[in-house]
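Subject: Predicted fold for Fic family protein, 437 residues

User T.R. writes:
Posting the sequence so we have a shared reference for the thread.
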Amino acid sequence: MEPLEKAFALKKELDSLRPLNREQEQRIMQKFRLDWNFHSNNLEGNTLTYGETKALLLFGITAQGKPLKDHLEIEGHNEAIEWVIERVSGEYPLTESFIRELHQLLLKEPYWVDAMTPEGAPTKKKVEIGKYKSLPNHVLTVTGEMFYFASPEETPAKMDDLMQWYREKASAKNVNPILLAAEFHYRFIRIHPFDDGNGRTVRILMNFILMKYGFPPVIIKTQDKSNYLSALRQADSGIIEPFITYITNNLIHSLELMIRGAKGESIEEPDDFDKELALLEKRLNQGTQEVEKTAELIHTLYDNSIVPLFYKFAEEGKKFEKFYVQSKLYIISNDHTSDNFPSAILAIKSKITQDTTKFGVFYGYQAFVHSVYGNFNHNAVVDVMLGPTSYFALLNGKPANLEKRYDEQLTEEEINNLVRSEMKRHKEFIEQKLAKK
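User M.O. replies:
I've generated the structure tokens; pasting them so everyone works from the same file.
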């Protein structure tokens, strides 16, 4: 049976079991809500584990050592889900106002994030809640090419077009809710109307559409991220069928789970127990279990910790360029050095092996422009050294009092502190030169 046919057959079976009693429905929706909150946020880089997400939402317990921002993301996402679930049963049309209000609930309050200019230079932008983007939010692809979403100027008109398209499709007599929800997801992502939170927003909107037609929500699991993104990339190339099939197959999974729950059967999935067991093992082994360095772990460290460190260092180091006649940024891995930032990020990644022992970022400044204070140079350096079971940071060759295991990533705060310390050293260096004069 084709995926769409199977989904509608399962929906018919589910409808035959309705109405569910209150306890059954609450138990099933709690399962969906926990999975939805964990996976949708984890896809975007949230560090809370499934167990920590569950503890926060069910018992209000916060996870020690995890950023406050990650807790707020989960809480905001949960509020947005509950708000949408309440509106599924009412006569609430999907409008731009609905979408902006959802975005406000999701992100809770404005904040600043790292970004890139259209030319690929690092910058910062303020994420406004419930408002369309004011700056471009194009992304750099894995091939080093820039992928362009709608510009801020185009966004209002494109969102208006999207809503007109949705109203026309939704009012058709032979509307297919699955095709409607999946295509809406893709069309929204191609616009990327907000400065941040687009993925989380559209996954909620897609599920709002599905639930309006009596389907359960689709949960895109974090371990399936590569397939999700691959299907989206195929749609970018003009082939949307794989994305529709991908969404349908995930909907089939949700339908089967809901049918089991409606029949009073277990709705626990095999990986639920595995996740809880892994969390228990991590707690038992915290601080005592060594993690051997592997190429896979180094790749994960590079993507999630080293590359963000490179971008933060580049952003802050650029602020000193005006004080020197010449300056250049280099990124380093073992014996490989490149000044072609950020394109060299992929080149560095391709050379990672289990024998990689160092990543570094280096800003060389030559000839202070105010010659009255002397003709001097300066080097700003952050290195990450890779040992057998842990990695540690050096600032200008000196230990930075930061050592972590390979299953632990650098937090945003740790990255900011490393860069800030090296930039502060540079500022104090210049001040010393001025004081001498």
